[in-house]
Design a protein that fits this description.
The strands form five sheets. The chain has an eight-stranded parallel beta barrel, surrounded by ten helices. Strands 11-14-15 form a three-stranded antiparallel beta sheet. The chain has a three-stranded antiparallel beta sheet with strand order 16-17-18. α8 crosses α9, α10 runs parallel beside α11 and α15 packs across α16. Helices cover about 35% and strands about 20% of the residues. The protein is α/β, with parallel strands linked by helices. The relative contact order is 0.07. The N terminus and C terminus are likely disordered.
Length: about 700
């Protein structure tokens, strides 16, 4: 085809890592025996909730249901196993721009269970009806799976199955006994008994077998945020944990701001953890809530905690404000933590949580830990991208392990080396996590990149052709094209470089006319001194008469958009088609909603009779980038167009560049339609008649 500041100062207490302090820790360690819970006198009635606790028989029923679901020990790990605790549905959903429907939450939950994440934090049952409904649906499906198990049709389920509310067969019947649903909450409020605390009651009403409650572990936060004494905070922790356990829950305590609290007052921070452990908590997660810790500090402090708390499972929960959430999580595991909390793809408030995808891959492939059932790690890329799609978030192209560019190679020397040694520029084999290596073509490419690109499209390309195409690529990129992600444009270059190439059509010329009646002088009526207008007075005074243009002489002219105006965009495209032996020239005219739309319609109109497959091809995206040349209107414009074939869901991208945005768009449009013609829904290639 041819075309004619503010500065903040923060003071922290130095870390206490001297060995003699280790012996001091044993002095403050609380007894591992279960202490009898001290009953507090009832607070004044003004601070108590007025609703009465549930009847005894209802409590007994609720407790028996929860205990039945805990028949399998969710906290019993194999040797060298690390429990992954995903909080995408709660902490991750706090990300700006992310909002999950009930169906979204169930779909994410289903995919997490399929890959074998140990814990899924489904939400905060006391905060909103959607989260409460999530737990209800999960419980209903768990009972259904349990019924199937009793009839011998499936294995036992530990409340791990979900359903899409609108399509009951879509998200349920995940046969996985390795995953447990957790509900999130907090310790009781000050001045309110555990029996009267609405948050704790919501957790008891929730059928999830695991309850994760957040507790303060920083003395300053206790006094200034919770507004309780340090002793009162310990009571909140002890009584809340014990109450949930008495009612059949397995309890995880998230020690909020633990690392900051340890730096400020190590003895008290540890006392908070030991209070939770002595009350019966199955696991305690150490939280870097502000996300500012360094890995070496995390490892040192976590090791002290692991040594101090004995058999209690220790986890870590890191935020990414310092860009170190993954590194800090790994440091915690090095120190002895056996649970890692985080979110798939690192979703979360501010800069996000620790990316559980990257953590899982690092633990499994670099540290030899078991994080998911055998064979599931190879599904990590698909799982991460599926969850991103459900959450309506773009997967980060450079995301380690699972991003589209994680194993992409642009430099010619790299591609040549990879042909000889796949690990020469890859830290792992991409297939271990379900990803794949790829080379991209650009002005930095060598002939190896071009040959690899041709191979992936099924073309046999000689060295001379590869050299010719590479020269074209370098020339086009020097003019503003970026071809590394425009695979269809590159494929068209190969196609046109072939010695037997015959174009299906050729654009002889095109013309675009754009006009508008929007601009001009708009008459603005002047108001009288009293603010009223005389336009409706019906006066026949000569001062109220109109001029020849129908404009009232009392109206002051002003620049603006005229009412009832319209724009006009017309395109004329002249093409030659070569579907038959004799060339045929056609002229097509079309109007559109803008000049590019008019061109697209005119071009399709001219080609439709010979290539009906174009009816199924549509534009799915259109992007414009300005390649600045001194900030002038003469700058080169790059246009990228994404196409989709509705019959096959085949997608491709083309690019065009020119100082005229219309010509840049038309180049990308022509390449995209030619590519679609060659790969139509029936898999056909243009058949040139020989008779």
């Amino acid at each position: 085809m041819m075309l004619g500041a503010t500065t903040t100062t923060r003071t922290t207490t130095p870390l206490f890592f001297v060995k003699k302090k280790r012996t001091d820790l044993k002095i403050v360690q609380l007894s591992r025996r279960r202490r009898s819970r001290r009953k507090l006198p009832p607070p004044p009635k003004s601070v108590l909730k007025t609703n009465s606790p549930p009847p005894a028989e209802e409590e007994e029923k609720r407790s028996s249901i929860t205990k039945a679901k805990n028949s399998k020990n969710a906290f019993k790990l194999e040797t060298n196993e690390i429990a992954l605790y995903d909080t995408t549905l709660r902490d991750g959903a706090q990300q700006v721009g992310m909002s999950l429907t009930l169906d979204d939450k169930l779909a994410v939950s289903k995919r997490l269970k399929e890959i074998g994440v140990r814990f899924i934090e489904g939400g905060y049952p006391g905060s909103n009806p959607k989260d409460a409904k999530y737990f209800e649906v999960e419980a209903n499906n768990a009972r259904e799976m349990s019924s199937q198990s009793n009839s011998g049709s499936s294995k036992n389920s530990s409340y791990t199955d979900s359903a899409d509310v609108s399509n009951k067969n879509k998200n349920k019947n995940v046969n996985n006994t390795n995953t447990f649903i957790s509900a999130f909450g907090m310790t009781r409020r000050k001045g309110v008994s555990v029996e009267q605390d609405a948050g704790l009651q919501a957790m008891l009403d929730c059928p999830a077998p695991v309850a994760c409650i957040v507790a303060k572990a920083w003395d300053e936060q206790c006094e200034k945020v919770l507004e309780v004494t340090l002793e009162e905070n310990l009571q909140l922790i002890e009584e809340s944990v014990a109450y949930l356990i008495e009612n059949g829950k397995d309890v995880i305590v998230d020690a909020e701001h633990f690392y900051d609290g340890y730096n400020a007052n190590p003895e008290y921070a540890l006392k908070c953890l030991k209070t939770a452990a002595n009350a019966g908590a199955k696991a305690i997660a150490l939280c870097d809530t502000n996300g500012g810790m360094m890995p070496w500090d995390v490892e040192a402090i976590t090791r002290i905690v692991v040594e101090s708390l004995g058999d209690t499972m220790i986890g870590v929960h890191m935020h990414n404000d310092g860009g170190l959430a993954v590194a800090n999580s790994i440091a915690g595991v090095r120190a002895g933590a056996t649970m890692v909390q985080g979110c798939f793809n690192g979703y979360g408030e501010r800069t996000g949580n620790a990316d559980l995808v990257v953590i899982a891959a690092n633990l499994a492939l670099k540290m030899g830990k078991k994080v998911v059932p055998d064979g599931e790690l190879a599904k990590l890329t698909e799982c991460a991208r599926t969850i991103a799609k459900i959450c309506r978030q773009d997967i980060l192209a450079r995301q380690p392990y699972v991003g589209p560019d994680a194993f992409a190679h642009k430099g010619g020397l790299h591609v040549a080396a990879l042909k000889k040694m796949p690990m020469s520029y890859n830290h792992i084999l991409p297939e271990l996590v379900g990803n794949s290596a790829r080379s991209v073509v650009s002005e930095l490419s060598g002939r190896g990149n071009v040959l690899d690109a041709a191979y992936k499209t099924g073309r046999e390309v000689s060295g001379d052709m590869a050299k010719k195409v590479l020269a074209q690529i370098k020339s086009l990129e020097s003019k503003g094209f970026i071809l590394e992600d425009a695979g269809a444009s590159v494929d068209i270059l190969f196609q046109r470089a072939a010695s037997d190439y015959e174009a299906p059509f050729n654009v002889v010329e095109f013309t675009v006319h754009s006009g508008s009646t929007s601009f001009g002088v708009v008459a603005k009526e002047e108001d009288d001194d009293d603010g009223s207008s005389d336009s409706g007075s019906g006066s026949s005074d000569s001062n109220s008469s109109s001029n020849g243009n129908g404009t009232n002489r009392n109206r002051a002219p002003s620049e603006g958009y005229k009412e009832g105006s319209f724009s006009s965009n017309q395109a004329i495209v002249k093409i030659d088609t070569f579907l038959t032996k004799n060339m045929e020239t056609r002229l097509s005219v079309a109007e559109g909603n803008g000049p590019v739309d008019a061109l697209a319609k005119a071009l399709r109109s001219a080609l439709r009779d010979d290539f009906p497959q174009l009816d199924g091809i549509s534009l799915s995206d259109y992007k414009v980038d300005l390649l600045s040349q001194g900030g002038t209107t003469a700058a080169v414009t790059r246009v990228t167009i994404d196409f989709v074939d509705s019959a096959t869901d085949l997608r491709w991208r083309t690019v065009g560049a020119h100082s005229s945005i219309i010509e840049a768009s038309f180049r990308a449009l022509v390449d995209g339609l030619e590519y679609g013609i060659e790969r139509c829904a029936d898999g056909c290639v243009v058949d040139f008649e020989t008779n």
